[in-house]
Design goal:
Blueprint lengths: L2 H11 L1 E4 L4 E4 L7 E6 L10 H19 L3 E6 L17 H9 L3 H18 L15 H13 L3 E4 L2 E4 L1 H7 L12 H5 L16 E5 L15 E3 L1 H13 L3 E7 L3 H16 L5 E7 L2 E3 L2 E2 L10 H5 L10 H9 L7 E3 L1 H23 L15 H13 L4 H16 L8 H18 L9 H23 L3 H13 L11
Parallel strand pairs: 3-4, 3-9, 9-10, 11-13
Antiparallel strand pairs: 1-2, 5-6, 6-7, 7-8, 11-12
Helix pairs in contact: 1-13, 3-4, 5-8, 8-9, 11-12, 12-14, 12-15, 13-14, 13-15, 16-17
The structure holds adenosine monophosphate and zinc ion.
Amino acid sequence: MEEKNYQQYNRSHLKIYNSLTEKKEFFKPIHKDHVGIYVCGPTVYNHLHLGNCRTFISFDVIFRYLKHLGYKVRYVRNITDVGHLENEYYNAEDKIYKKSRIEGLEPMEIVHKYTLSFHNLLNILNVLPPSIEPTATGHIIEQIDLIQELIKKKLAYEINGSVYFDLKEYIKLYPYAYGVISKNKMDKLFHKKLKFLEEKRGFQDFSLWKKAPSNHIMNWSSPWGKGFPGWHIECTTMSTKYLGETFDIHGGGIDLKFPHHECELAQAIGIYNKSCLAHYWMHINMLTLNGKKMSKSTGNFLELKDLIQDKICEKNFYPSIFRFYILQSHYRNIMDFSDKGLMDAEKGYHRIIKAIKILRNFEPKTSEKTLINNFNVHHWINICYQAISDDFNTPLLITHLFQATGFIINNSLQNINISHINLLKKYMVYFVFDILGIQETNYHEENSKKLKILIKRLIKFRTEIRKQKNWIVSDRIRQELFHIGILIHDNKIF
Ligand code: AMP
Ligand code: ZN
């Protein structure tokens, strides 16, 4: 099959598991050659942990594959820089505001610091930037407009300078709509005997706008006084602003199904009176540690720097190995992090890269050979596409890549003709580098040894500089090292 035909064929055979219907469905975009996708981005008050990385790596593969199939993809991933409350039940704090108190920084310094960290980390992991990365603080006016619309429709009420979504009214109007993503049953939702903020009419009513305390620096003027927007309204606002009232794919981690995605959808249905916001809702399952969800709030998490920090100088640990490890589980399965799994991934990664290097340097002895082995390149390309087109089954694709790797490393290339070798080379590169986004680290052992010595010296030099309190130079060195994947964790030195 011609390359174009592979793309054409797989466009019409791509299946996506839709959380709405709980089924795999053939993917049909709203506009023929275009795909609109919205993914809930981070709340920038912390460095990403490995679980967050799993979600963003998974959507990166989805983005890459849709582009590979020839779609023009508009990928919108927001930054939550205000309004993510710790919870909705009592007067909880905004996460960023709370962190600014803890770190003794302005909220916007927190936002800036962790947005930089987020971008650096995703860059190290070879996650492509989205097409648009809107922020909540950049869309206050639009959010106020939508809240006013909800008040007009009697789906929201103002009280004491805050505005809440009125869930009981919404359910009266749209009896079956709330719960379609999370599959939560109404009686389960409303019979919780938890205490909740007294000013709210109902326990499950959620904030659209919060009155800012007098000392709260993050506040904007609104028809209801000074305040800041709630978390869920920002995503409804920004997704529809950039992708339209209905778009193709909406995604996030599975923990966002409820309440976040359910609330996003309720707001959209209330405002636009359409049956859905996105046609396909995709959710990445959790990365766990010791069987429990990785999460900053419980302290049960690891960061990329924990994997790199000690290992970089002793052995060749590359962020791509972590990426490869993550993609060896299907995104819909829970994945429990283990050192053993990561070490196995390291071996697998090196085998695949070795096979690609052999292919690259291969010189055929004769140009015409007939197939005298059982490795059929065309069949192999087909099954690789089938795997990735089957709800982005990266572990199955990697199994097929290992099959080709075994064939290449076992010196069997002399047995197939040159055109097939070229095809194998081309599609190995497509699948490994372009679609899975794995990177090759291509310096030789000798250079690598020298580099390690240089890095150690630089880190030692930085320690001396810190003792002299030369923060400008020491910060610069840390940033430069971060750009090449080396994260330094400072201990107090005085
Ligand atoms: P947050 O900044 O907490 O909103 O998280 C950013 C993204 O990471 C969201 O899509 C979350 O659903 C996702 N996420 C959080 N924890 C995990 C985890 N343990 N495994 C996978 N994804 C996660
Ligand atoms: Zn969101």
